[in-house]
Design brief:
- The chain is α+β, with helices and mostly antiparallel strands.
- The chain has two helices and five strands, in the order E-E-H-E-E-E-H.
- The strands form two sheets. A three-stranded antiparallel sheet has the order 2-4-3, with helices on one face. Strands 1-5 form a two-stranded antiparallel ribbon.
- The longest helix is centred in the middle third of the chain and has 13 residues.
- The relative contact order is 0.22.
């Protein structure tokens, strides 16, 4: 079964990506982020949010479209492993006793 991400329409290939680039916020930085998304293989890349984190870093949110699909039937993984876990209270009690 071939699958790919979707946003509004099944199999539209829509992806949301957030990342930071080590550049000062500017129009050039926004364009660099868009070009970066294109180089990742997104056919359509829109920077929908850009925000300065400091003088030398800018955070971006991009929407892109990818034509890449994967065949789910070829994916092989080990069966899910279930492990018992303790709650924070149980951990505290365990530490006190041991």
């Amino acid at each position: 079964m071939m699958i790919k991400p979707y946003g509004d329409t099944l199999n539209d290939g829509a992806v949301q990506l957030s990342f930071t680039l080590p550049v000062k916020y500017s129009n050039k930085a926004v364009e660099a982020a868009r070009v970066y998304c294109q180089k990742l293989g997104f056919a359509v890349a829109d920077i929908v949010h850009a925000e300065s984190l400091s003088d030398d870093f800018t955070f971006f949110v991009a929407y892109g479209k990818s034509f890449v699909a994967i065949d789910l039937d070829t994916i092989q993984v080990e069966e899910d492993v279930h492990a018992d876990v303790m709650t924070m209270t149980e951990i505290d009690e365990f530490i006190k006793k041991n």
